[in-house]
Amino acid sequence: MATTSDIRNGLCIRYNHDIFKVIEFLHVKPGKGPAFVRTKLKSVTTGKVIDNTFSAGHKLEDVRVETHKFQYLYPEGDLYHFMNVEDYTQIMLNVNALDTPDLLKEGEVVTILINSEDGMPLSVDMPASVILEVTATEPGIKGNTATNATKPATVETGATINVPLFINEGDKIKVETDKGTYKERVKE
What we know:
InterPro entries: Elong-fact-P_C, NA-bd_OB-fold, Rib_uL2_dom2, Transl_elong_fac_P/YeiP, Transl_elong_KOW-like, Transl_elong_P/YeiP_cen, Transl_elong_P/YeiP_CS, Transl_elongation_fac_P. It is a single chain. The chain is flat and about 55 Å long. By secondary structure, the protein is mainly beta. 0% of the residues lie in helices and 54% in strands. It has a 6-stranded antiparallel sheet with strand order 1-6-2-3-4-5, with no helix packed on it. It contains no helices and 16 strands.
């Protein structure tokens, strides 16, 4: 059993007959009344995100998890195939288990949380950022830089990301996986 003081990003808990992963939390101590923890929970089975508030000291049933490194192999419909980098066993996960499947490039190494009790995969943690090549984008218009102007660009995985005007086709860019936003251009 855990309490609200143990809540952190990535913690898996059993709540409302389902297993949820904490993706965001905030401890709040108002001037009047008791403290509480505001959370965003993502169901590892359906992918649905809910907001929930726990009062301070509330008991939570945490789920013991192991983390393993897996390499992404290929997609097949709604299933994504991964291979364990240590023992080369393969698993398939539903698209709901991934936070940003459109940023996943073949060969990318991810961390998969596995339930210690039954060996079932719970969720996939992407690296903080990925480097992707821009495959299609419009040329930037000269003089259109009064503010932080951006344009849409399609990357090699098929995702569309807003990038600055100076990014061209063939450039490699670093993308933050948690928000799906452009971070910087990568020089080779």
